[in-house]
Amino acid sequence: MSEWRNGRAYDVIGMLVRTVPVRLLDIGRNGCRLETARWLEPGTTGQLLLSIDGQPQIDDVRVVRCQLRVGAGSLYQVGIELLGTKRLHRRSIRLAISHLVREGAAPGAQPATEDRRPWAQRAARGGRKLVLIRPPPKPAGSEN
Amino acid sequence: MTGRRRYPRYVLAEPVDGHLRIRNEVVIDRRDDHEIEARATQPCRPDERLLLEVPGDGSGRIVVRVLESRPVLLENGGVQHQLRLLVEP
To answer: Which of A3, A16, A32 should we substitute to test contact with B (largest number of B Cβ atoms within 10 Å)?
Structure first.
């Protein structure tokens, strides 16, 4: 199917949008690990939408790797890079995580209920806390 | 891998669910009110529900369901996927 303009044919281009449900396993300032029931091709770019502390957050992302999770049926673990393609805004995942990392940097830290910032107060009132416990333990012999 | 991550990762106390929204460009070969044929670089699963955005089209976004996804070999040896999509109300 072509569009004709000025005597020339142009392909009609469309965009197919696919929404894949994911579960967040761990997160850092520049990436995260997700779990999903669908294989995702490394290099795929898209938008990650998460509800952090009851607030919708969004960021552009890129799939770095995708591995079948052994012993979990057809579940895949996906490594995601948070892309800095847009300016930080209040709905940005990167900004939300940097706030939480700053608060939860000490092992066992909990969001301070005395914190007056709106997102921390909402967390304390809502009772649903996004608690950054500690960095995951490194496997023995890991270089990372 | 050395240097793969610049920052530490944190484990979450409660699971957080979300969505990954992925866009793939397609070339529309044929279209009527009920069915659309298009070519894509990625395959689709039969019965998968997707959104089709056609820039400049008055109908905006169209909800479609995949009827068929068939690989097609190109002259240069590459592979595209011929899609048949059902327009859903």
So the answer is: A16
ipTM greater than cut 0.90: no
Report CB contact under 8 Å: A12, B51: no
Tell me the β-bridge partners of A31: A81
Instruction: Give the chain A residue whose CA is nearest to the CA of B26.
Output: A14
Helix (H, G, I), strand (E, B) or coil at A103: helix
Question: B16, A51: Cβ pair inside 8 Å?
Answer: yes
**Is A140 within 8 Å of A114 (Cβ atoms)?**
no
pTM of the model: 0.73
pLDDT digits (tens, 9 = 90+) for A110-123: 444 444 455 545 44
Cβ atoms of B50 and B88 closer than 8 Å: no
Structure tokens at B32: 């009527």
Residue for token digits 């109300």?
A: B89
Q: Which residue of A has its CA nearest to B6?
A: A30
Q: Do B26 and A128 touch (CB under 8 A)?
A: no
Q: What are phi and psi of A50, to 5 degrees?
A: -130, 155
How do residues B5-60 score in pLDDT, each as one tens digit? 667 777 776 778 999 999 889 999 998 889 999 999 989 999 999 999 987 666 67
- CA A41 – CA A6 distance, rounded (Å): 39
Q: Which CA distances in Å does A82 have to A45, A59, A79, A102, A128?
A: 10, 7, 10, 18, 24
